Amino acid sequence: MSNSSNKLPSLLLGSGLVAGAALAAVDNILFRGEVSPIVIVGLLLAMTITAGALWGSRAWLAVVTCWLWLPAAHVVKHVAGLPDTIQPNTYTSILLLAAFTFAVAAIGWALGLLIHRAQSTPA
User: Fold this and answer.
1) Which pTM value belongs to this model?
2) Closest Cα partner for 98 from 78, 77, 70?
3) CA–CA separation, 97 vs 41, rounded Å?
4) I need a surface site. Which of 15, 26, 56, 82 has the fewest CB within 10 A?
5) pLDDT in tens, 37-50
6) Got the DSSP string for 18-49?
7) Is the pLDDT assigned to residue 17 strictly greater than 90?
8) DSSP 81
9) In angstroms, rounded to a whole number, what is the distance separating the alpha carbons of residues 75 and 33?
10) Backbone angles phi, psi at 7, to 5 degrees
11) ∠ CA(37), CA(41), CA(43), 5° rounding?
């Protein structure tokens, strides 16, 4: 195993953490958390498509790490009793958000995989 492949899991994890933190910041901080959900879905798609296109099937770690920030931020706000834009602010709503954004992330990753495979296939 080469030295660069030993660093790949760290790169994937770090990329997912940074992308997810940025996404959570846009969702919860920018415009006081009043960003349109369409913007968040678009950003999540862009991030997961990019990861899939860059790293193919190995991108799952970056994709899951990035996705996890969205529901986790809402869980933290709910537990801390902080105001949140998700309505109603319940665990059920957060679970539904998690399921929907997981599906979006999976679709983004799948599209990225298609791009990755198209780039890898000889003409």
Assistant:
1) 0.89
2) 70
3) 11
4) 82
5) 999 999 999 999 99
6) HHHHHHHHHHHTGGGG---HHHHHHHHHHHHH
7) yes
8) T
9) 15
10) -85, -15
11) 115
